[in-house]
Structures are given as structure tokens and as C-alpha cells.
Amino acid sequence: MGRLLTIGKLLTVTGLIGLGWHLTSASGPEFTANDKAFYADANLLNFVRPGLIIDVVGHEVAADGTVKARVKLTDLRGAGLDRDGIVTPGTVATSFILAHIPPGQAQYTAFTIRTAVSNINGSSATQASSDSGGTWQKLADGDYWYTFRTKIPASAPRDAVYAIGAYGSRNLAEFDLPTNYDDDVYHLRLDGAAVSVGRDIVTTASCNNCHDPLALHGGSRRSVELCVMCHQPQTVDPDTGNTQDLPVLIHKIHMGANLPSVVAGGKYQVIGNRDSVHDYSQVVMPSDVRRCNVCHDGKASQADKWLKPNRAACGACHDDVNFASGAGHVNLPQLSDNQCANCHTPQGELDFDASILGAHTIPEYSRHLPGIKFELIKVDDGTAGKRPTVTFSITDGKGNPVKPSDMSRLAVVLSGPTSDYTTYVSEDPRRAEGSGNAFFWTFQNPLPADAKGSYSIHIEGYKNAILLEGTAKQVTVRDAGENKIIHFSVDGSKVEPRRKVVDLAKCNDCHGRLSLHGGNRNTIDACVTCHNAATTDAAVRPAAAKPDESISFAHMIHKIHTGLEIGQSYTIYGFGGTPHEYSHVGYPGDRRNCDSCHVNGSQNVPLSDKLQPVKNPRSLVNPLQPATAACVGCHVSRDALSHALVNTSQLGESCGACHGTNADFSVTRIHAR
Q: Burial code of 136-172, b = ≥16 C-beta within 10 A, e = fewer?
């Protein structure tokens, strides 16, 4: 329900359907089966009217600097809420921040501050905070004046951008409904001039591509617009001395394990409320940390400000640079930010230069790469027992033909059946015959004599390219093509592609651009051909680390994304016997939101009866039935595995009896938020 309430200002009611409200916005239904309230009794929902919308709609500033904020507290239908929870269900707790951006500056300075004292070392530090001791005046249910105890000093500039931040929660626990959260930021100027925005460099929507939703400090701070009012240079962690300035904090958190100071053996920690230790030293960004546009995606009104370099933001990631002495900065001291842009322009003439975009270039996505594009044209002799011939083409970014023999690596992978892959063979077609835009490869391995249904062939590979040849920045880069796949029938039946379970675009919301195994595999269609029910890491797992681990896609991906919460080691061995251990992985979103990855309700049971058991020698049950394999990827307890086992017979899994789409314990319902 959290995501719903975050965008509550956009919602209107269309009525009751089934057991719950269905709310709509411009983008369609929002109050869905993924929300807990969907399953509540309709009469209860009509009484409680869940949801919280906080709107600061006006202000008054007295001559002595006293600030009043007019605040509307409403439910999702726009009805006013009683703060005390007497006239309307659920008490509403609200806090306020008062801050300004002085003329000529880019960040807030808060008037509402506190002194934080460390219980660890006794140090103290100033921190931006919320107002304390303010008063309320009720005009009507949901309509209030809040008068700050904190005043604006008489010396404060009248032409500055001022902001009132409000955040709060509505407690509906007594009705067995979730706590509702919302926040709002209101801008003003003392001279009466119009102002629409304060600091807006990265949008909340951009954060929510991964974080789903952004919800910090207990859940009530839900927008970047609010975060930046306190997380600015004024706020310091007294326990560690680390600034809590948002550009520094976020850069360091997302850099995490790759911070030079952490690589050298240090840690990056923040000590929070009640001396809670937040250690970010193992954080690995789902996308390459050089892919700045995952966050800086151009959607904010001040989006281009990240292209104006400063020591704080840049030094957050590059924390081995000493700007005062010049160490790590080509021995050039930098005592202010005034000259940063002289060298670090937004974009230079070449990748890998000192410009901001150039310095953060990911080699595999350099604009100087020629480019590789694959096409699969047709399959001949693709019938059971025969050796199929695939016709394909390779071109560069300008459409010029590329010969297979010029590729550094090239593979065509024959897999099947598409109903649930259980076998694959990979062959190198660099000796393929043909010319121009048509080359032909006949597989050395025939299709099984008893093959039925549809099979597939996908193509993968790269060509090594030398960039900036002859310069000090010369680098050899794998120029990889996007995988392409073609399906064909081996027995004359209708061609059936593999079912679509997840969407690559959803993966890329967090991963930026999914690309694995040296850039060779970059689409889900290619991944699942090898990561199938019959495959383990047996070929590369050392004898001392036996038994083998399943690499079946659903089981593997669920376990990887559960990572930190799994409570046990999860290690897969890869190329060259390299161990990949995932118990440190912290999923940035809410794993209950299966739709973050899944499409078309593919997480629901029962699954297709064509799916095959999953081979897993490390499991207490081997093989695992298809639905069980997916579910115990997250639900790793012995109890969960035993539950699945006792509900499986010689006829198969009975998951649908209790967890089916319309059942009381449906997958969607038990994961509802």
C-alpha cells in the first residue's frame, strides 16, 4: 500500500469492486490485488477510508518571523482527517521542517536544527531536524494551521527560496490495516515573488525504479524533495564525523564496496538513531557505478546541475583524492570549486577524458565503438533427428557487413524444448559459409531423434575493438552484440516461443543494462536457455565444494535477490571455478512486489504442467518440483521445503489448491503490501 499512498495526490475513487476499493489515476488502476487493503471487508474500508495525503496549501509569516503553515490532511477520497483520530479513524502524526536556500547557493540551510550528541565518543554536531513545540489550530476536520516554534531570523534574505516540509503517518493498526505515510514540500519567498521549486536534481521516481518505494527513517520520509531539506552540508553524524549531505551520502552508499577507502580495508558507516550501525561497505550497485544516468536521468527540473562538478560530490566516490594537497588529483591542489569545470567539462571530444561523461564512460558502451548487430534470418532442416542450418547476419553500427571470422567470439546456441528448456549445445560458427548479409551454419550436433514441439537458436558474441589507438588511453574493449533468438518447430506443430515470465526492461530499471558472462548474454531469452531446470554448476564446481548447485533461472534469481535476508550462504561457481557468493546482496526494493520483475501474473500458481523438475543436489529435496524450486528460492526454511514436499504427490504439486489465483492464500495475496 505504500506505493499507492506515495502518489495519493493523483488518485480518485471509481467505486468498490469485489472486496476492495479500486482507485484510478491517469495511468489506470492503482489500488490493486497487490495492496493489503484490497482484501479487507468493504464495510470496514468504507468506515476507515484508508490513506493519507498531506498538503501544505498556504502560509503566513509575521513581522517577528513567526511562520504558520496551512495544512490539509485527507484520506484518498479527499475527506478531511482528524489528527487525534476521534472523529475519523486513525491518529495522524505530523512533523515539520523549515529551511531556505540563500541567494547564490544551491543547497538548503535549515532553521529547524538540533544538537546531536554521540553516545559512543561524546562528540556533538549540528543537524537539520524537525520543529519542536509548535502549535495547532483546527479550522475543520483535515484543515489546520500549524504555527512553528522556530522563527525566521530578521536577518534572513527576503529573496531566498524558503521551504516548509511536512511528513507524517496515519496509524491504522487497530483495524488490521497498514500505517499510511505521506510527505509534502511547499515553497515560498518572503518578498512575495513566485517560486515553484527549491532543489530538484534527482526525482523520487528515479529512486523508486529500484527502491519501490523510497521510505526512510521509519517510512514517513518518501520524497527526495523532503530528504534534501535535512541532508545538506549542515548535518553531520557526530559518531563518525561523516557529513550527511545528500550528494556525498548517496554517492558513498551506492559506491559502497568500490570506494577506494573500502577497497583499502576501511569501512563506510553511518550511526543512526539509538546507536544503530549502518554499514554500507558491502553495497554493490546493481548497475555499473559509472552509469550516472541511472539516477541522473534528466527528469528533474535542475537535472543538469550534476554536470557542474564540485569537490564534495566528486570526492564522495573518489575518496582517495586529497583536494588540499593535490594527492590523487594529478598533484593539483583544489582549494575551492571555482576551477573544477575548467577541466571537468560536461562532455569532451573523446571518451575516457577528464570530462564528466568521458571519465565515467563504461568501455563496453563507448560512443567510439563500431557496434555489432546480429540478425537470425531463418532455420532450415530444423526437424527431429536432423542437423539444423541457421542463416544469420552480422553488421556494424553503420550497417556494414561483418564476417563471422572477424569476430573475437561468436556462438550459436541450440536449445529446447521451449515449453521448458532442458538441453542446449553451443557451437562456434566463425567458419560459417556465405557472404555479405547471409551466412550459413549447420550444427554439428543434431536435434534429438525424439524431439517434439518448438526449439530455439540464439546468437551471442563480441568483436574486440581498440579505442583511442596510439594514445596513452588506448584500451581494448569487447564490442558485444545484443542477443537475438529464433524459434522453430521440430515436428510440424505450431511454433511456440518460451513463456514470458519477466521483462528485460524491468531488470534494467535497477541494472541499467543487464549484461553478463563477459557481455555475451544480455537478454532474458538467452539467459534461460542455459539456466534451465536440468543445469547445475557441476562443470566448474571444484570437488572440495560439492555437491553442485542449481542454476535454474527462477531458483537462482530468487536466491540472489533474497541474498542478505536468506540467512545462509549461497554460492554459485562460474567460469574458471570462480565462486560467486551472494549472501551479502541486499535487494533495494520490497521483495513482496513480485511485479517488479514478473509480467502477466507469471508468479501465480499453478504453473504449466509442461515444466520440468529442477535438479538441485544441494537441496534436502532433489529434484525440486517447478513451483517449489521458485518459492524456496526466497522461502529457504526447512519448514517451507517440508510444506512443499508433503503437498506433492505422484501426480505433481498441489500448490494451486491453497495458493491459486483466487484462493485465500494466493501468491498475490500473501505478498500484498
A: eeeeebbbbbbbbebebeeebeeebbbbbbbbbbbbb
Report whether 483 contacts 367 (CB < 8 A).
no
Which residues are CB-neighbours of 63 under 8 A, at least 6 positions away? none
| Residue after which a domain boundary falls, among 462, 494, 524 | 524
299-347 confidence digits (pLDDT tens): 999 999 999 999 999 999 999 999 999 999 999 999 999 999 999 999 9
Q: How confident is the model at residue 13 (pLDDT cuts 50, 70, 90)?
A: very low
Q: Rounded mean pLDDT of 399-423?
A: 98
Whether residues 553 and 478 fall in one domain: no
Task: Name the domain boundary from 178, 209, 235.
Answer: 235
> Which ranges of 219-364 would DSSP assign to H, the alpha helix?
224-230, 246-255, 260-263, 311-317, 340-343, 356-359
Q: Which residues pair with residue 270 across a beta bridge?
A: 278
Q: What is the chain's mean pLDDT, rounded? A: 92
Which CATH number fits the domain that encloses residue 359?
1.10.720.180
H-state helical runs in 215-354 = 224-230, 246-255, 260-263, 311-317, 340-343
Does residue 622 contact residue 602 with C-beta atoms inside 8 Å?
no
**Whole-structure pTM value:** 0.90
What gap in Å lies between CA 69 and CA 58, rounded to an integer? 6
Domain total in the chain: 4
Question: According to the model, what pLDDT value does residue 31 have?
Answer: 66
With a CB cutoff of 8 Å and minimum separation 6, the contacts of 86 are none
Q: How far is CA 629 from CA 155, 410, 542, 614, in A?
A: 66, 32, 24, 7
* Residue 241: Cβ within 10 Å count: 11
Name which residue leads in pLDDT, 197 or 525: 525
Measured CA to CA, the distance from residue 168 to residue 144 in angstroms comes to 14
Q: Which of 568, 570, 563, 569 minimizes the C-alpha distance to 584? A: 563
Quick one: 167 and 78 in the same domain?
yes
For residue 171, the 8-state DSSP code is -
Q: Count the Cβ atoms, other than its own, within 10 Å of residue 369.
A: 19
Nearest to 180 by CA among 47, 35, 58, 26: 35
Q: Which of 258, 256, 343 is nearest to 308 (CA)?
A: 343
**Residues 643 and 562 reside in one and the same domain:** yes
